[in-house]
Amino acid sequence: MRNAAAVLYNVFKIRIGLAISITAVAGLAVTQGRVISAAEGFYLALAVLGASAAAGAFNHLVERDLDARMKRTRTRPFVTGAFRAGWPWVLGIFTLLAVSVGLAWWTINPVAALYVYLGAVVYGYVYTVLLKRRTVWNIVIGGLAGSFAVLAGAAAVDPTPGPLPLALAAILFLWTPPHFWSLAMALRDDYARAGVPMLPVVLGNDRAARVILAHTVMLVAVSMTPLALGLGWLYGVCAVVGGGWFIVTSWKLTQRPDRDTAMRNFFASLVQLVLVLAGCIIEGFGLV
Q: Of 4, 13, 227, 23, whose CA–CA distance to 116 is shortest?
C-alpha cells in the first residue's frame, strides 16, 4: 500500500503541485482587497494542487516514449507497464482537472478558476504536447504555468490583478527557464538521447551557461520590483540573499559548465524561489 501511494505521488507530481499551490498562496498574500476565509484559501490551494496533479499525470502519460529513453525516467510506471495507458487514465485525468477547476469556480470565482485551468493547460498541453519536442523555447513558454498559479491566488482577493501580483507572476515566469536549464545541463545526455531540444542540447554547455547567467541576472533584477510596490525589509533580505546566491552559482556555472556545478545551480534556484515566496507570504499576511 505504501509503495502504491509513493508511485501515485510521483505520477501525479504532488511535490511540484504543492510548490505551485504555495505560489498561489503567495499571490493571494500580496494582493490587496477583500479578506478571504481560511476555508477559501484551503479550497484555492486544493484546486491548484488538483489541476497541477492532472497536468502532471497527463505529462507522464504522453511522454512515456521519451521517458523510456532517459535513465532518470525509464522506471516510471507507464514505461515499465506497472500502469497501462488507456482511456481510464485519460478520463480520470480530465475528471480531476474538471473537478479542480469547478472547485475554484464554486468556492472562489470564475476568474480564479480560469487561471487554475490555464496553468494546467499550459503545462499539460502547450508545454508537453506542442513545444517540448519541437523548440528550445519550450520551457520559456512553459514557465507561464507558475505565473497563472500566482494570478489564481490574486484573483481570489481581486479578479483584476494589481502591480504587485503581476510582478510576482513575472518573477515566476523568469525563474522557470534558468531553473530547468540547469537541470537539463546536468542531464544533457539524457535529453540528447531522447531528442528533446533543451537549451544545453542545442547550444552546448558553454553557451547555455552564459544564457542561464544572463537570465538569472534579469530574474533577480525583476525580483527587486516588489520593494517599490509595497513589500518591506524582510522581502528585500530574502530577495537579495536568494538572488545573490543564485547569481554567484550561475557565474560559477559559466566557469565550469559540468554536471556538478549545474546541479548546484539548480538547487540555488530552488532556494531563491523559496526565499522570495516566503518573503511574500510572511509580509503579505502581516506576520512581521
A: 23
